[in-house]
Design a protein that fits this description.
about 475 residues; alpha+beta; Immunoglobulin-like; 6-stranded mixed beta sheet; 5-stranded antiparallel beta sheet; 8 helices; about 30% strand; globular; binds zinc ion; metallopeptidase activity; MetalloPept_cat_dom_sf
Length: about 475
């Protein structure tokens, strides 16, 4: 047996003659290298199938991980989700639980962290564990840019790609040693540029540090450093962009971006109904169509479009005793009854009705009713039946008309999303109310303080993309 030379910690050269080193079983790359992890040192690299190298200097690859992250000016234009550290570690002080009981202690923002972690691994074929660390890839969802013959449901929405941040977390201190970070797309239609970054480029930016669960992590953030696009065809399965760190012959996979399959683009048709009840005519936020199309459901690769923009003028129908009774009584109704009565009247006297009813399985449209009526502090309400099934309709009241989050949040309910903090009805995950930037969160907390993200709550989580994409109101054949 040939002699075995190893490098330990970069400085001590240790010669061993046998099989007495234990090392990780996974072959990282098919270039004759295995990563040996002894748990104490910075790692040992060991060449096989070749003669022992002549050792002159410290050439081992510094250890670090690479994560894809969302730029800070993100406003919902594409789907991007990742496992936030504060969701799984007690890093943020939660004042009250979702029933209002005081906590006042750093608390993980998601109640079942094990299940949440698993969401980011669902659909990952080549799971990685660089340097024995569990790695949870971020997920990106972008529309394919295609000709009609390549794919009829493509879009120019992400024609120029999306620019993402890179976060490089140190395990060893990174030095300017010629290491490169390489990006490799596994699909011909999925493109990333640049294809590599020099480590000198990384360390020319500011080295920062953050505390995660009592542990200090030094890291670099390279803003909008990589561009990713899907062009010329679709992704028939979830795809990945692999990230490698490379120095001489050493090449280790240190990161990954998952890209959501985009071969099925469901359509959501919205019927917008201005319900006129006297007084001032309601005015919905004038760019609401853009919100539907480009800042919300597009994240789940759902093409949401306003199909009908109409009025339901109850004043003109007030000789009808049914409608007249509604107009007289409506201010005394609860928010829920206001919506159910408007639906009932629209089904009887409105124009764009559906056999079986708006909230039935026959309906492959979503009805957005809006009104100048108010209902206390309620901005909007969505139909929910006694079996906990969300309907295909919602109502936006006076104080929600100019609130973009209300218009999308209520529609999210109609696409089967409960609140992120909802505990009833066996939800997929439960977070504390008012601590996330999710559309389906609230902008206030139990205990009364505001959600710090309140002006930019654009997030829809990856597991929410999946719930919405299965909603009964969507159209798949068009
Ligand atoms: Zn809600």
């Amino acid at each position: 047996m040939m002699s075995k030379e190893t490098y330990v910690g970069g400085d001590i050269i240790e010669t061993t003659g046998g099989n007495n080193l234990s090392y990780a079983k996974d072959v990282i790359e098919n270039i004759g290298l295995q990563v040996i992890q002894d748990g104490k040192t910075n790692g040992v690299f060991y060449g096989i199938n070749k003669d022992a190298p002549i050792i002159s200097t410290n050439i081992n690859l510094k250890k670090f991980l690479v994560h894809f992250r969302r730029p800070k000016n993100y406003d919902g234009k594409y789907g991007f989700d990742w496992l936030r550290e504060e969701y799984i570690y007690p890093m943020v002080t939660v004042t009250n639980d979702n029933n209002g009981n005081p906590i006042n202690a750093p608390t993980a923002l998601c109640k079942n962290t094990t299940a949440l972690k698993q969401e980011y691994l669902n659909g990952v074929v080549n799971n990685i564990k660089p340097y024995t660390i569990n790695y949870y890839p971020a997920w990106l969802a972008i529309f394919p840019h295609t000709t009609t013959s390549q794919f009829p449901h493509g879009s120019d929405m992400h024609e120029n790609g999306v620019n993402l941040d890179l976060q490089i977390d140190e395990i060893d201190q990174i030095i300017s040693d010629g290491t490169e970070i390489l990006f490799e797309s596994q699909n011909q239609y999925l493109k990333i540029s640049p294809k590599k970054i020099a480590i000198s480029d990384v360390i020319s930016s500011n080295r920062k540090s953050r505390n995660v669960n009592g542990r200090n992590i030094n890291y670099y953030k390279l803003e909008r450093k990589v561009n990713i696009k899907c062009t010329g065809g679709v992704l028939n399965k979830h795809e990945e962009i692999k990230v490698f760190a490379k120095l001489d012959q050493e090449k280790v996979e240190v990161g990954k971006l998952m890209v959501y399959k985009n071969n099925v683009i469901p359509k959501a048709e919205i019927v917008v109904v201005n319900v006129l009840t006297g007084g001032n005519k309601a005015q919905l936020k004038d760019d609401y169509q853009y919100l539907f199309k480009r800042q919300s459901f597009n994240q789940a690769l759902i093409r949401a479009e306003v199909k009908v923009d109409t009025e339901f003028d109850l004043n003109k129908l007030n000789t009808n005793p049914d409608i007249n009774n509604f107009l007289i009584s409506v201010n005394g109704y609860s928010a829920k009854k206001k919506l159910s009565e408007i639906i009932r009247l629209y089904e009887l006297y409105g124009k764009y009705t559906v056999p079986g009813g708006i909230n039935s399985n026959n309906t492959h449209r979503t009805y957005l009713f809006f009104t100048s009526l108010s209902s206390g502090g309620t901005r909007g309400i969505c139909s929910l039946n006694q079996n906990n099934v969300w309907g295909n309709s919602y109502l936006v009241f006076n104080i929600g008309l100019q609130n973009p989050r209300t218009i999308i949040h209520e529609c999210g309910h109609s696409f089967s999303l409960p609140h992120t903090f909802e505990q009833a009805g066996n939800p997929r995950h439960v977070f504390y109310q008012g601590y996330t930037d999710a559309y389906m969160d609230y902008d206030w907390r139990q205990g009364g303080s505001p959600n710090p993200y309140s002006s930019k709550m654009y997030s829809i989580f990856k597991w929410q993309w999946e719930i919405m994409r299965n909603d009964r109101s969507l159209i798949f054949n068009y």
